[in-house]
Fold this sequence. Notes:
Elements: H1 21-26, E1 29-32, E2 35-38, H2 43-52, H3 63-80, H4 85-96, E3 99-106, E4 109-116, H5 122-138, E5 142-144, E6 153-155, H6 168-184
Antiparallel strand pairs: 1-2, 3-4, 5-6
Helix pairs in contact: 3-4, 3-5, 4-5
Amino acid sequence: MTTEPATTAPRDPRPLVGEPLSLDLLNTRWMADGVRQDLLAGTEGLAVWLAANGLGDRFGADEATLEHVLRARDAIASVVDGPDPNAGIDRVNKVLDHGRIRATLSPEGPGEKPEFKDVTWGAAWLAARDYLTLLATAQDRIRPCAHEACILHFFDTSRNGTRRWCSMAACGNRAKASRHYARARPAR
Length: 188
């Protein structure tokens, strides 16, 4: 009896995962050793991102889906990071035009179901919709990492809302080490 080897999804190489869907999409770009990395450089990376967010069974990792997800990422980034956040609003709305929420009633009670004009827009639409949810929940807690060399984003869930780093273990420690080095260096 022969068994086929178990296939495992490729490892997610990103330094920060598990953020809400819209911010996790932004975090598909990151810096490593001063070089910008992009998980969505191809459909293989899209498959990793979809799987990491529980969307791999719902949406295919094909070229059309990748194109739409990249549009959503750029639209959300233009609102979050752009010099004029209002300029990106239209871009986010164009992504949102490709889906809607349908109210439902089931034995479990009332619910909502997303519907898409074209399923290849599904993951992109869900990310844009998630961004709206974050804005409605706590807009001031959508943050970029405070480290000057980091381009990651997070949703601050700390009790007092003072989180500054994408990761205390990475960017937080680098900043602390830089400050310590600056203080310990002899004055010239």
